[in-house]
## 1
Amino acid sequence: MQNQPLTLLILNGKGAGNEELRTAVNKLRDEGFNLAVRVTWEKGDGDRYVQEAVSLQAETVVAGGGDGTINEIATALAALPADHRPALGILPLGTANDFATSVGIPLEMEPALRLAVLGKATAIDLARVNGDRYFINMATGGFGTRITTETPEKLKSALGGVSYFIHGLMRVDALKPDRCEIVAPGFDWQGDALVIGIGNGRQAGGGQKLCPDALINDGQLNLSIVTAQELLPTLLHSLTRDDENPNIVSAKLQSLSIRSPHEMTFNLDGEPLSGSEFQIEVLPGALSCRLPPQCPLLA
Ligand SMILES: Nc1ncnc2c1ncn2[C@@H]1O[C@H](COP(=O)(O)OP(=O)(O)OP(=O)(O)O)[C@@H](O)[C@H]1O
């Protein structure tokens, strides 16, 4: 047992009372796995536990929480020198779990924990924003952002992902597109954007596939702009249908810059960042992540 590599599970405190998880941790420990658990209380705790994982020479750090928890752990891992960087495992305990769901991680605790400890570590891309912020799944701006940041907590826990959709429709009267310019090598767009999605992964906001072709190891980011020419039809179409929408502009890019005359807010894996200028770039193969063998987001 002492020779087993250490896995440090960093658990968002919101999920600490989960009995199914306690049973799964005990089961894996009984099988001889060297599994330690740390529980967060506030932002910043995840980062400190990643430092502890490095000093304990943990082979894997498991992010137990929603997309925001994965973001915090991925950000802390990205700051480490590559040769000291543990692999990332994911235990879905959030409301929406967009990243975990789309990469095919089981929602049941025991199979998810087993995968997080034993799954094959695969190099995946990470995206960096303005030099010091990151996203592993998706950055969303415009109306989509307001849906995810403003959905009340009670509605979120009662209805899960569906609440984003309902709450979004309730706020149709408050729609205000973001005027901006998006520039990249070989790409230049300006206009009114209803939703901007920049995907390393495919979906955000509780299952909305804004970047349906994105891959997490192709060294590129998928940009989708839902333009605001025909506001309501576009919104309904983009939220309810999977087929081609003429009001969506898309591109695959390695870096891009977004400028707006007004302050805009982007949600980086659900964590807000406001400003009028955003420089976004992909860091190919920056993290090593334990994923299912049939992960649909791998090239
Ligand atoms: N004990 C805690 N209680 C409440 N919030 C916490 C706690 N520990 C950390 N946090 C904060 O929770 C946020 C991350 O939450 P996370 O996104 O993982 O959960 P969620 O909102 O339930 O999931 P999802 O994004 O999938 O809806 C981070 O900002 C982190 O600082």
Note: The chain has a mean pLDDT of 87.
## 2
Amino acid sequence: MADAAHGPVLALTTGEPAGVGPELALRLAATAPSAARPVAVGDPALLAERAAMLGLSLSLPELAPGEPVPAARAGVLPVWPVALREPSRPGVLATANADYVLETLDVAVGACRAGHAAGMITAPLHKGVILDAGHVGFTGHTEYLRDACGIDEVVMMLATDRALHAAEPTWRGGGALRVALATTHLPLRDVADAIRAPRLARTLRILHGDLRRWFAVERPRIAVCGLNPHAGEGGHLGREELEVIAPCLDALRGEGLDLDGPLPADTLFTPRHLAGVDAVLAMYHDQGLPVLKYAGFGRAANITLGLPFPRTSVDHGTALDLAGSGRADPGSLAVAVALAAEMTSRGDLKAMTTP
Ligand SMILES: NC(=O)C1=CN([C@@H]2O[C@H](COP(=O)(O)OP(=O)(O)OC[C@H]3O[C@@H](n4cnc5c(N)ncnc54)[C@H](O)[C@@H]3O)[C@@H](O)[C@H]2O)C=CC1
Ligand SMILES: NCC(=O)COP(=O)(O)O
């Protein structure tokens, strides 16, 4: 799977078939020579149909996981086939294909775990249609991959391209940002109850360990947001900072983690406060991700920390409104592929997962 001359084999799941995932994978393969060997996981007929729809001339050789994957060439996209459950039209969701989407993830995870791929990249899926199909409790790739790997905790982190590379110091300005989340896909009314010290501590240990492991940040400095406005205003605007977050951070500082916070989120996300910080931990999805997307939408990637192999993804969703049009920007997928390739080269840092 690892081949110094041709780069690592990476499973690239093509996501919701009615969304932009299939066409972004095709457009990337049509134009960009890759440092890795991405293999699309999806329906070959669907990919051929979308390629024709977009006027792309591509060869889509079908392989089985474990078969040799040739060096990447512009215009060639090898495919590990998974069959659609019913034909798919751009922009039109079908619950029948929810199992297809999940099967692509299972194939990619199986390939990573068997050593046929060094990591995986995921094009966007549609959480709503998977739930509508009856997969109760499905909240996204992040938790699905956690469960598929039989581990207790993972962490979602998004990073702009300027903050991806360890060799390049972080926070040089110009939109370099890494934002991890203490909670992911929860209704806002449930967020405060989910901020509990044991889970927060596990999240911060994973973030600290994986910044070292995958990003070669030797001594990560992490800024932690408060939950409430003004980080609770001394308890007058909420007590989570005083009762949960601050004591948890104190305990982790005793373990050697370099943590700043809890800080008011509005001023934390300013250049002066971000100087010297390697990652921000936001308490919830829409506290951290709008800032990240403002800084770098289209050139950022989503990374699942805590998995036994690299998994990266795009910074956007299925964009059903653009599917089939050829107008969706493949920039984030390109960043996700490049990052996954780079992460696989950091295997020697795997031991550095605990503080
Ligand atoms: N990694 C993943 O699997 C992700 C999946 N989603 C899922 O996607 C579905 C749709 O979510 P939305 O909130 O509507 O977000 P979305 O990202 O699909 O769309 C929001 C807006 O951004 C635009 N946009 C998205 N990707 C673009 C691209 N590559 N180039 C240009 N414009 C682009 C869309 O046209 C739309 O106007 C939901 O089911 C959500 O859960 C959302 C984020 C990540
Ligand atoms: N907003 C980020 C997002 O929805 C990504 O979720 P996941 O499918 O990567 O877990």
Note: The longest helix spans residues 197-215.
## 3
Amino acid sequence: MAKPQVDYALYLVTDSTLGILGDRDLNGVVEASLKGGVTVVQLREKTGDTGQLVSKARELHQITRRYNVPLLINDRVDVALAVGCEGVHIGQDDMELAAARRLLGPDKIIGVTVSTVEEALRACEGGADYLGIGTVYATPTKTNTKEIIGAAGVRGILERIAEAGHNTQTVCIGGINESNLQRIMFQCHAAKKSLDGVAIVSAIMAAQDPEAAARKLVGLVRDPPPFVVDIGDNQAWEKQLAADDGDYMVTLAPSVIKMVVQNIAANVALAVGASPIMAGYGEEAADLCKLGGALVINMGSIDPNGLANYLKALKAYNLEGRPVVFDPVGAGATSLRREAVKTIMANGYLDVIKGNEGEIKTVFGNSQEQQRGVDSSSTLVNPQKAKLVRELAARERNVVVMTGRTDFVSDGARTFAIDNGHEYLGKVTGTGCTLGTTISAAIASRKADRLTAVIAAILHFEIAAEIAAERPEVRGPGTFVPAFLDELYLIRQATARDDRVCDIQEKFRPAIFEFDKVILTTQKLLRAATALQIPIFVTTQNRARLGDTVSELKSLLDAAGPLVKADLDKTRFSMWLPAVSSHAHFTPHRKSEIVLAGIESHICITQTALDLLAAGHSVSILADGVSSSNREEIGIALARLRQAGAVVTSSESWIYECMGDAGIPEFKSMVGVVKETMGDTKAALQGLVGSKI
Ligand SMILES: Cc1ncc(COP(=O)(O)OP(=O)(O)O)c(N)n1
Ligand SMILES: Cc1ncsc1CCOP(=O)(O)O
């Protein structure tokens, strides 16, 4: 019989010991697991004589054949031959691969246990059909294991066998269960080779309901983990970074943060546009994670209850696919903390790990140094720091931030050094923790490009500190804190985009080309601005004579409430009035991104755009949202403004640019707006744009 094509997704390794099988019947448990979806079975019996083993294997083979699933025998080539089953699994101390192949022939399956690159290359070259790579995690099921290699060890092996051109199939084994399976597969993945499946003993053999357990596990193998993100290409990433500048959506950032820094962490979260919830009770996480946002696990102080709560929250956020930031405060200070770090890392996926040098070394796992409290003494030089964050991020497949005089950030492929910040940050308790809060707010809204989000958050945080420290009223750490909160807030406000609605008044209705289309686009713009929390500035030109803003926009402006930062009457043509430029929303030297809609394109819109550009802001003009009395003016005005540095775009393009990511909580409602206004968009584009571009 030719060698069958094997699906290694869920590989069951049996165990008949009392501690695992109990008093149940082996065949019954294996059959239930086959019903649940197990794809390979290995009979692994360490006691009993050969005759007993052969008859057990025969019975089991009858069952596995009914499910068209291969049966392999652990260690015993003679038993596999006697039974005529599909093959064997041999370890490094069992019969040699070449001898087993000679005895079994080319068509039988032979799997080999490997725990090092050398063993793996030898097994592949020797013609193994698959590798059982492990032991991944320590497990009571097999205590005589030689090496615990972790996900990083598995990935190292996969990398090297792929480089050597072997396409041998692979599973990993040791300590795998429902709660860690997807993370292990994700973290084991090498650039050119993934695992084909997982081998499991106790999570199926000892399960109360082996069928349900197998069904769940095979689903987890086949489905991508919820926390997987598409990191995107470098070009898109660079554009994103340029546009980002600390532009966060309002996000929810539940934090498990201890008393000492709760207050400042909550204030920082509010200042950067997030809504913080300090949740110390793990049970709440299942509901909180459904609201969007990100989780911060801050190990400020630990106790057994606290650790259990961290793990519950971590599980809930991982399951929901929401990002998690881990701040391993004082990680190396005590053995309890070192253990807590291990437990947290073994129980969930952490999108970002942020710590000082000592903490990151401890997380990496090779630090012999004793940390004192949360101190941040340094022994590494910059290239070593960069290497450490890069290696840790590559190992964990996440983003790692090492804070210090220079901060290092890496996603395992790209590594950055950031030289901003101010010494006062180190003189106020809890500021380090609040950087974690700021990062969480950023990745909650830009999960698809975590590295960009993290860098934007660090820059936002540290530049705010620099500006705050320069303020005349700041004389030390005490006066620095309120100034820092103000600057965090002002940067967020200033870098957030805003809308300008220019002079859309009653008297212009009959005179302006396609006036109704300008209104349609402006309505859509106001709805988008309200949903995305974008500030709005409105003007009228000589209201007494030309009338108020048209009634079609009034209810939308009312609904926008406090987002309408100003509704001013003017005689000047430009909207960049002193009352606008001096508004708290604009801070000197900080660039805002402003979009303009209204009339007339060659007069008020042109003069507003030129003033804004001269003041250093970025300006976008909606081609489907501006008009003039004479249609010919529109094209001339837009060409001039484009040349002056403004971006001419469309309302839909601008709305999607503001969202940036389909993962943001507002995306669904915004798609609703886009769909509902589809007809208006078409009408406005046809009516207004055809004549200008
Ligand atoms: C799929 C799979 N991988 C690894 C092992 C371990 O085999 P071995 O090293 O021979 O240890 P024992 O199973 O004999 O204790 C396995 N059995 N299956
Ligand atoms: C057979 C074997 N080889 C390495 S670990 C292991 C046992 C895995 O058992 P479990 O899936 O219960 O952790």
Note: The pocket of TZP (ligand 2) is lined by residues 13, 134-135, 139, 141-142, 145, 173-176, 200-203 (CB under 6 Å).
